[in-house]
Design a protein that fits this description.
By secondary structure, the protein is an alpha+beta fold. Helix content is about 30%, strand content about 40%.
């Protein structure tokens, strides 16, 4: 009975409770909390994992999901998304969303804060695809449809990503490229998709391999535009090595890039993207190694570009100044004549498309670099293709290049100077069009005190000798206008001494030692000036070829006409005549004008102490022999006059005709005979005219000398008597030798030239019937 009473009482209370508004409020509140705290997290966790599995065929894991139905905050902790091959793609510690409730009633999703803590992501490229390529393709399609169908507004007031770590691997290159971007902090404010609202963002990051960076800016979606400033400090570039290996046999051993500036991108629909950059670009501590040649290729301590502006529409590059410090570069020619620069880039050269190159050349672009400053730099040049290895180092290189611009009609202004090897000096000044030097170049180059011993490789190749000692100074001026070259070249060689001859090298085919001896002054120096002109538009012609041709032409002119060169040296207009000393026929005495010639030769030899003088004796077997015969005849004729006249002091000039006739006929009879004399007389009888008839008188009727042409008769007698005089070859050779000795004696004893510089050569024989002078040839040689 009592139990029934209690049951009825409880039932009545329950009915009363069910009718109470407070009960239902409490029940709904409890249910709301249950659904919010328990059901929604459970559903989100399960549905998210299933959705990822179905849509992306990837496994995912979520440790906990919590939702606060009162604050409308959602937290997803311990999320992990695997690769298709079970590797980790993405994970985070906590994903937190703070949603404003009231805007939902007006179809606006207003997220006060969205925060991602300690996320990690791995970005991996294999061949041509990334490990997220499948996700991007699907998301792009969904984003397009979402943009068209979704009518709710979305506003994310604050998006924060804290301590994001990104691993980037590129397995499409060999070796694999890898970089770790750590401790990335991201802050975005006012994210309003599909609107023209401006979103602000900031990003901080560190690179494990070296460097850090900061980015701050804005972007809009309509139109697509972003503008941001960034500061990247000492970011290591060594991780780019795998990409460089695809194009060159080079290895980056060190280097850090510095970037600080502002980037602006405008990406309007159906139009070209407009991009610009304003700021600085630097690359420090660069060290590049040539893996093919196994030697240092390129390096510098500091490269800084200040006042950089880059624009894409139109293409424009301007740089206020470029600072290069501690530059090292190497140009090396190997034994097979290959050049290290071309060899280093052989991989890219093989695959280079000439069509692509031509298209790039047609691009409309402008550039302007205000000033390039180079300090404390060096360049190493070597050429092992020569018979003797050649290497030179230009260091302490300082200077600047100004006006490096596509719109500068005067060209870039170059001013550089440095030290060559230990004590040499090099300087380059002038203007040139850097992209078309053939169009305009006006450059002066000065090299002083350059050690010539190191030039033995080139001297061996071009002249066939090593260089024992010497210094070079070179002043060159090149002017090129539209391919036409005009240049002046001044070469000064101090104490140049050739060394051993190099076997197997033909040189230039000239007596180079003689050329040097001719050019060398009394101080042992060579001072040579020459001009070069030519058309460089001809692809077969280069500046080097023109200069070498000019040098060779100059040397050829000197060695083929050495006495003319010496005459010019002395200011003589007839320098070519110094090559011969003239003697009267049958004579060995020096005529006054020949003495003057030998004095001039002495002066020239004193000016050129490296020269020797060869003297050739000379005799003419016709004119000299005849002159000697005449001397013998004169002696016989004088003796005959004395004998017949009986006068000891009689002179040939004072003898009368009859006496002369008697002597000549007597000499003729001795040389020939009476019968031949009668024939000679008959050949010289005059014709006697009688009326219209000409009467010839025979020799037997001759009683008067008047009927004989005495002049012709005497000349015939004399010539025939002279020819009968005997002069043997020994007499002629003695005459030639005496002439050479006379010249040698004058130069050594009178002009005091050293004996070792005078060489008496063999005799030379001539046959000139009409000459009254015989030429003794002189020859210049090198000591």
């Amino acid at each position: 009975m009592i139990d029934e009473i209690n049951t009825n009482s409880t039932t009545q209370k329950n009915k009363k409770l069910l009718k109470s508004p407070l009960f239902w409020v409490a029940a709904i509140f409890i249910l709301y909390m249950f659904v919010g705290f328990i059901v929604i997290p459970f559903i989100i966790r399960g549905q998210a994992i299933d959705f990822i599995k179905e849509e992306y065929n990837r496994d995912a894991k979520i440790e906990t999901v919590s939702f606060n139905p009162f604050t409308f905050t959602l937290s997803i902790e311990g999320f992990l998304l695997n690769e298709k091959d079970r590797g980790v793609f993405l994970k985070w510690g906590d994903f937190y969303v703070n949603l404003n409730l009231f805007p939902l009633f007006s179809k606006d999703i207003d997220i006060e804060e969205l925060q991602l803590l300690y996320p990690e992501i791995q970005i991996i490229k294999k061949r041509e695809k990334f490990n997220f390529s499948d996700l991007i393709t699907q998301e792009e399609d969904e984003a397009d449809s979402l943009k068209e169908e979704f009518c709710w507004g979305i506003l994310i007031r604050n998006l924060k990503i804290r301590k994001l770590n990104v691993l980037v691997q590129d397995k499409s290159v060999e070796p694999m490229a890898e970089v770790h971007i750590d401790s990335i902090d991201v802050l975005l404010t006012n994210i309003h998709p599909f609107t023209s609202d401006t979103t602000e963002f900031k990003v901080d990051f560190e690179i494990r391999e070296g460097g850090k960076g900061f980015v701050s800016g804005i972007f809009t979606q309509i139109p697509m535009m972003t503008e941001f400033t960034f500061d990247m400090d000492s970011v290591a570039i060594i991780e780019t090595q795998p990409y460089l290996s695809k194009f060159a046999y080079l290895r980056i051993d060190d280097g850090a890039i510095n970037l600080k500036g502002t980037v602006k991108l405008i990406m309007p629909e159906n139009e070209n993207t407009v991009a610009s950059y304003i700021g600085t670009i630097g690359l420090n501590d660069l060290n590049v190694f040539d893996t093919k040649k196994e030697e240092k290729f390129l390096a510098w301590d500091k490269l800084e570009n200040r006042g950089v502006e880059i624009h894409s529409e139109p293409i424009l590059l301007t740089i206020d100044s470029v600072l290069i410090n501690g530059l090292f570069s190497r140009i090396a020619i190997a034994k097979d004549q290959t050049i290290n620069i071309l060899d280093a880039f052989e991989p890219v050269m093989k695959n280079m498309d000439t069509t692509t190159i031509e298209e790039k050349e047609k691009l409309d672009y402008k550039f302007d670099i205000g000033m390039i400053n180079i300090s404390n730099s060096e360049m190493y040049f070597s050429d092992f293709s020569l018979p003797i290895n050649f290497a030179v180092r230009v260091h302490s290189l300082n200077g600047n290049i100004a006006g490096f611009s596509s719109g500068n009609p005067l060209g870039a202004v170059v001013a550089l100077e440095g030290t060559v090897d230990e004590y040499g000096f090099a300087k380059i000044e002038g203007n040139l069009d850097p992209f078309n030097p053939l169009n305009y170049t006006n450059i002066a180059m000065n090299f002083h005190n350059i050690d010539l011993v190191k030039m033995s490789g080139y001297s061996a190749k071009f002249v066939g000798y090593k260089i024992e000692k010497g210094k070079l100074s070179l002043d060159l001026e090149y002017l090129i206008r539209k391919g036409m070259l005009t240049s002046t070249n001044q070469i000064f060689l101090n104490k140049l001494t050739l060394g051993d001859e190099v076997e197997g090298e033909e040189g230039i085919g000239l007596p180079i030692k003689l050329a040097i001896a001719l050019l060398k002054d009394s101080d042992g120096n060579i001072d040579l000036d020459f001009e070069v002109e030519g058309d460089l538009n001809d692809p077969e012609i280069s500046t080097g070829k023109l200069v070498w041709w000019a040098v060779k032409r100059t040397l050829t002119t000197i060695v083929t006409a050495p006495f003319r060169f010496l005459g010019n040296l002395l200011g003589l207009s007839n320098g070519g005549e110094l090559e011969y000393v003239d003697f009267e026929v049958a004579d060995t005495s020096l005529a006054p004008h020949q003495i003057e010639k030998l004095i001039n030769i002495t002066k020239a030899l004193n000016e050129r102490p490296g020269l020797s003088l060869g003297i050739y004796g000379a005799v003419d077997t016709v004119s000299d022999k005849y002159a000697l015969q005449k001397i013998k005849f004169d002696s016989l004729f004088t003796a005959g006059l004395k004998k017949i006249s009986g006068k000891e002091n009689i002179l040939a000039a004072s003898a009368d005709q009859e006496l002369r006739r008697q002597v000549l006929e007597s000499l003729y009879r001795e040389a020939y005979s009476d019968s031949l004399l009668n024939i000679m007389i008959s050949q010289h009888i005059k014709e006697i005219n009688s009326g219209n008839d000409s009467i010839k008188i025979s020799a037997k009727d001759i009683h008067d000398d008047q009927i004989i042409d005495m002049r012709d008769y005497f000349n015939s007698l004399i010539n025939n008597i002279i020819k009968k005089q005997k002069v043997n070859n020994n007499k002629l050779m003695k005459l030639a030798a005496e002439r050479a000795e006379r010249i040698s004696d004058f130069l050594i004893n009178k002009q005091k030239l050293p004996v070792e510089r005078i060489l008496v050569k063999e005799n030379e024989i001539y046959e000139n019937e009409d000459d009254d002078w015989v030429k003794c040839r002189l020859e210049l040689g090198a000591l």
